[in-house]
Amino acid sequence: MFPIRVQDLRFRPNGRAVLDGVDLELGDEGITLVLGPNGAGKSVLLRMLCGLIQPTGGRITFGGHEGAAPRSGVMMVFQHPMMIRASVADNVALSLKPLGVPRAERRARAMAVLERVGLANRAADSARQLSGGEQQRLALARAWLTRPRLLLLDEPTASLDPSATAEVERIVREIRTDGTRIVMTTHNLGQATRLGDDVVFMSAGKVREHAPLQRFFSRPASEEARLFIQGELPWRMNF
Amino acid sequence: MPSFSSTFAEAFALLWLFDQRVAEIVILSLQVSGGAVVLGTLIGLPLGACLSIGRFPGKSALTVLMNGLMGLPSVVVGVVVYLLLSRSGPFGGFGLLYTPTAMVIAQTLLVIPLMAAIARQVVEDAWQRYAEELRVMRFSWWQSVTTLLYDCRHSLMVAVLAGLGRAMSEVGAVMIVGGNIDRVTRVMTTAIALETSKGDLPLAIALGIVLVAVILLLNAVAFAMRAWAMRRYG
Fold it and tell me: Does the residue B226 lie in any domain?
């Protein structure tokens, strides 16, 4: 699957350039943070990496093979995850259904992963009654259960309080330690510095910079990136 | 001509005494309409869900057709089923005409479009919210259908109730394919029509009261179940 190479990727629905020639290369480990202002194309890029949106130009190769994302091994967690009207355990076990795992085994594996995300005591509760942070942990557990090679996270902590955010970050680190490559979008620069190994900075549908985390924050290569960081700094310093 | 109040008094007396004729007609009605609703649920709900998430040529035309068939006249269905089941028809050999089975078939055909159209709308709303995540998890088309039907099960109760209401209240189709034969194919609606024409209004009113009561009771149970489910599952 790795390296993932994105070459001159374009997406122009109704003539509007959402992605305008994105080039990117992702290795097989670490956490990449995709940063940028609203409308930069971050979420669209993630959706293309997992095959939800087809580009109108350019290409993505996985381990040298061109085409759609591999049928297994790629998972994505959304800002507002799906919660069907069922128990927490059943919602988590859902991701194993397409893999043909028997029902009893699905249940057992779901319980094991719920233990790791701290939701085992809520397994029998309705998933829709969980708090926002708990729902996001459930979504991470659901993705983790399939042991994906690549996990895409689209602003998983947006609108969560600090303690819920910290819990999500702990789980993301654990998933990474388990050997999963993670690509994540966020507007939270504090979170980027806590989690990231490298940063992809996007604006207006282009990748302006792809750099190791420390270098991006200490010596941003573009003026746009510098302004973006400065705009967030006062908020970050409050902590 | 009996007075309005005396007719109702006699009707309630029939019910109070648990008249054997009334009981037989009510039981057969519930069996026929219940059977049609079960079949309609098994066919109509998945059909509606398939229509909501499927992408195929002619989907819009099929959706319009399905919506249009919601208002299908029951006598038309009755005539079509009659032709299919009559001796010269393609299924005449089964000898089903003027049996409760023929009535179940006719009512099933009546309720399928209604249930499918409601299910399509309910499932489509859920599909719009869940589509991306189900696709990321590599759910097959059929797995998506079953998952969405399960998720929407409480809302789909409306479709089942609408189907039951349609089945229990229709008279044209069951009259044609059932023949309204006493103690064989006589159900509440056909009995009400017959007894009214004969002038036996107390029995017609008694059956009408039972019909309305059954529909109200089922709706109340469904309402309570839905309220419980909404509290339990959100």
Answer: no
